[in-house]
Design a protein that fits this description.
CATH topology of the largest domain: D-Maltodextrin-Binding Protein, domain 2
Structural class: alpha/beta
Helix content: 25-40%
Order of helices and strands: HEHHEHEHEEEEHEHEHEEEHHEH
Strand content: 15-25%
Number of helices: 11
CATH class of the largest domain: Alpha Beta
Number of strands: 13
Number of domains: 2
Largest sheet: 6 strands, mixed
CATH architecture of the largest domain: 3-Layer(aba) Sandwich
């Protein structure tokens, strides 16, 4: 059992709450959009809050694993990876959009390019985001596998890091097709950061559990309850917009077993990723 010294007390009830957001878009944009969240949480929790965006998914997983952040807003698969490395991480909330706690990956192609349908991907490059991304790697890769297309055997796997990088590369014709979160794709179109006329949808993945909110289990019970309540009672659309959801519902680890099953379809050994 861990000693209950000053360090333990600090970890159980830190002076400052560090909250990490998944680095699935430009970091400065994410931090700017999260400022209303920071103000809200500081008011409710009576603690300073620091919003953090790590350089990539693996950095966020490691930060949670080694206690450098208290709360993490992970992607589904990056949470599964983090949980496999740090079992003490607790999922407590999930975003709800259009009344559902799930979303889709959208597979897109260059509008005037060689890929007209999923079968045309064979023998060509296909762009994914981060290797630990659910909707920009795991889900679309599993979708392609179900269609008989295996990465590195039937098409060339290209990783571009962030979702918006995938959309831009496909729109520019740098790669003929790729995949990203449908939610992020719609935001990119709405904010005119990509031109939808240069892209076409070729498929949607099966439903994916929305991003989970997680926290360190060693936080004291009163603080954990306060954090969970603050997020579940969140109603301000301006704040929820930073999560690209309409509300937040309670969640547990079991809600993400579907992603563990998806990894099995792809014969991925989560423990080695």
């Amino acid at each position: 059992m861990r000693a209950r010294g000053p360090a333990f007390a600090d970890k159980a009830n830190p002076d400052k709450l560090r909250i990490a957001l998944l680095p699935d878009e430009n970091a400065s944009t994410l931090i700017q959009n999260a400022q209303p969240l920071k103000v809200y949480l500081e008011g409710v929790l009576k603690k300073p809050v620091e919003i953090i965006v790590t350089t990539d998914y693996s950095s966020m997983i490691e930060a949670m694993r080694f206690g450098r952040i208290e709360v993490g807003y992970f992607g589904g698969f990056s949470y599964v990876l983090a949980k496999s490395k740090a079992p003490e991480i607790e999922a407590f909330g999930v975003g709800v959009e259009k009344g559902k706690p799930n979303y889709h990956s959208i597979l897109i192609a260059t509008a005037d390019g060689p890929v007209k349908e999923v079968a045309d991907i064979k023998g060509k490059p296909f762009a994914f985001g981060d290797r630990a991304s659910t909707s920009s790697h795991l889900a679309p890769r599993a979708h392609l596998a179900k269609q008989g297309l295996i990465g590195d055997a039937d098409y060339k796997v290209v990783h571009l890091g962030q979702h918006d990088a995938v959309a831009r590369a496909v729109a520019a014709g740098q790669v003929p097709a790729g995949a990203l979160s449908e939610q992020i794709y719609r935001v990119l179109v709405e904010t005119k950061r990509i031109d939808p006329a240069k892209l076409k949808q070729i498929a949607l993945s099966d439903p994916i559990p929305n991003y989970p909110l997680t926290m360190q289990s060693e936080l004291k019970r009163e603080l954990k309850d306060a954090i969970k309540r603050a997020f579940l009672e969140l109603k301000d659309p301006a704040i929820l917009k930073s999560f690209r959801v309409e509300g937040i519902a309670a969640a547990t680890d079991k809600d993400y077993d579907v992603l563990r099953d998806m990894a099995k379809v792809l014969q991925l050994d989560i423990a080695k990723l």
